[in-house]
Amino acid sequence: MSNLVLVVDDESSTREALQEILQRDGYETLAVATGEEALSILSAKEVDVVLADLIMPGVNGLAILRKAQELDPTIQVMLVTGYGTLETAVDAMKLGAYHYLTKPVKARELREFIKKAISEQRLKREVQVLRTRVDSRFGFENVIGVSPSIERVIELVRRIAPTRSTVLITGETGTGKELIAGCLHHSSPRKKAPFIKVNCAAMVETLLESELFGHVAGAFTGAIRDKEGRFEAADGGTIFLDEIAEMSLPTQAKFLRVLQEGEIERVGEVRVRKVDVRVIAATHQNLDQLVGKGTFRQDLFRLVP
């Protein structure tokens, strides 16, 4: 599939020269003389890369950049500038421009950066598609059920998803606890951040502690290098701890610190690391009874309502 490059320059000689170079390399191009025309095309067509003069009468390159980002954040905008406006071009990159080229534009430089811009644009669009698929997978429409109890669960999830609250999901195995956890994350402000899942029942205790909090080289036999834990990997996002009742009391104590202070220590390390993680936990066991038996911490139980 050919890629569409929109060329915007009020100088006809520059506009035609840029278009000719791009067409020789097999790119589909549209060339316009004004920013107003460029905005019209951006609203009507799926453009991959915009190559725009920074300084033009009326709608300039910065206005085109802002409109492109508003319409489709995957569009790559490259600006063409004279040496006198180089500082402005650098500032434009801070606002999201992919790159800038100085006049007179060299054909080899143009080819190099257009190729890179197309590659990055494709990657961004693929990520966008994958995120859409993930959001669809974890959307409320995938929670099947019409009973009043299911409707109450969905309504509750809708209310608490936007918050930072720690959530405990209880229910028998196979009742969809992970699906509800996914709905909570993907309906929250953290949905673009990591969603890390850990099955606490699937690991022996020593491995679970290392997986959750990480470790440093030499912390135990086989620890040949530093390793990031799942809490660090989930920083800024959400961690789903399935079968939380399987945690040992020492691991529960470290987990409690995460909830209270937002801090972790890797196994074998004394350095404190800060993490910003929303916790969603799940279990099929009765935690209240486990507190009575002394196998689940009461202070932790209070923090996972």
Key traits:
single chain; 305 residues; alpha/beta; Rossmann fold; 2 domains; five-stranded parallel β-sheet; four-stranded parallel β-sheet; 12 helices; 11 strands; 16% strand; elongated
SSE order and pairing:
Blueprint: E1 4-8, H1 12-24, E2 28-32, H2 35-44, E3 49-53, H3 61-71, E4 76-81, H4 86-94, E5 99-102, H5 107-137, H6 148-160, E6 167-170, H7 177-186, E7 195-199, H8 205-213, H9 230-233, E8 238-242, H10 249-261, E9 263-264, E10 273-274, E11 278-283, H11 287-293, H12 298-303
Parallel strand pairs: 1-2, 1-3, 3-4, 4-5, 6-11, 7-8, 8-11
Antiparallel strand pairs: 9-10
Helix pairs in contact: 2-3
CATH topology of the largest domain: Rossmann fold
How many E strands?
A: 11
Whole-number radius of gyration?
26 Å
The amount of helix comes to 40-55%
Estimate the strand proportion. Answer: 15-25%
The tally of structural domains comes to 2
CATH architecture of the largest domain: 3-Layer(aba) Sandwich
Largest sheet: 5 strands, parallel
Helix vs. strand class: alpha/beta
Mean pLDDT: 87
Kindly provide the name of the CATH class of the largest domain.
Alpha Beta
The total of helices stands at: 12
- How are the strands of the largest sheet arranged? 2-1-3-4-5
Our measurement of the CA-to-CA distance between the termini, rounded to an integer number of angstroms, reads 53 Å
Give the ordered list of helices and strands: EHEHEHEHEHHEHEHHEHEEEHH
